[in-house]
Known about the structure:
It contains 14 helices and 14 strands. The strands form 3 sheets. The chain has a 9-stranded mixed beta sheet, sandwiched between helices. It has a 3-stranded antiparallel beta sheet with strand order 12-14-13, sandwiched between helices. It has helices spanning about 5-15, 30-35, 65-75, 100-110, 120-125, 145-160, 180-195, 215, 235, 290-300, 315-320, 330-335, 340-355, 375-395, and strands at about 40-45, 50, 55-60, 95, 130, 165, 200-210, 240-245, 255-260, 270-275, 280-285, 325, 360, 370-375.
Amino acid sequence: MTLPALEAxxxxxxxxxxxxxxxxxxxxxxxxxxxxxxxxxxxxxSTFAAGQxxxxxxxxxxxxxxxxxxxxxxxxxxxxxxGMDTGTxxxxxxxxGSENSIHxxxxxxxxxSQDLTPGEIEELSKxxxxxxxEAPDDAFISLADPANVQxxxxxxxxxxxxxxxxxxxxxxxxxxxxxDADTRWTITELLRIARKHNAGAGLVILSHARTGAKNILxxxxxxxxxxxxxxxxxxxxxxAVINMAPGDETENPPLLLANSxxxxxxxxxxxxxxxxxxxxxxxxDESFDVESWLADVQTAAAGKRGGKRRTLSxxxxxDVLGDxxxxxxxxxxxxREAGATRDAADDLCKRLLTSGLWxxxxxxxxxxxxxxxxxxxxxxxxAMVQEQQQGRLKV
Length: 395
């Protein structure tokens, strides 16, 4: 849809859905200084907040919807998500989309409810509502159709969300995917709908990222703003942006989360979460090595994958470490240098820890690393760390 067509659509909708035109909001210096404004209400770390628009970019099928559902669940229950705080009170979340069937949502919610009490499930029922695509036209959510706009208004008004999740943006936005004007128009309409009866409502938009190793590499660093597909106006309008990328090339990879933009505070360092297939919940993957991931993706982007690395046996892995310990990252790197892939190194560590041939230990002080090694070496490591700590206390 061209910009003139969008203007015609606005004119068609104005009589029933738009308020009368008004001046832009302005305040005098002294008035602004004297105002008693409510604090920003964050619901994920110091990144996502009610009352603002934020975005999550990721390749199709990667797990953006499930991550959103998990975050909303934990937020209502007062649980952290991926190690980050989820606010001080349960918010009302409305997850609107065109891709996830009622069967998919039932599977996820049942799994995510396994360890919950009836009271917690009731709390989630009060605060989380999802589009279930039961009627033939439920998947048609584009704002290009005035009838759809009214359905959006009616649906949002019936639940009154504090946070409106929109998934995916491409199915909602009318017009040209690369048009800044069309994108900004769509964002304005979504915010207007979300705040019609709740001026403090926030918006989270899920949008597709470009595929291929060269594009995935842009999830972090200077090119973070170029990670998403289509118009960059969505990135510009968002107060916070999360880039989500696959952590490897397997069917169910860990997910790298990179905070490419945060206007209200510092950006967090990239980290990974991994899905538990039994609970359908994500946990932070402390063993994920971002630097190794970058090296792997850079190699793939350069077209230098090379031959397949040999498989390391448990016996070889034991020889690699010997009677020594290292941090979890160091041990995995040594296995990779010996010829293991990153996934194989992770798997070897887990198998040797499960079998008891290796132990892992994390000292009880702030920012301490996790050490891995055989029992005899771990005993020496514990003694050495304890001696170091006592020395610091004496100083």
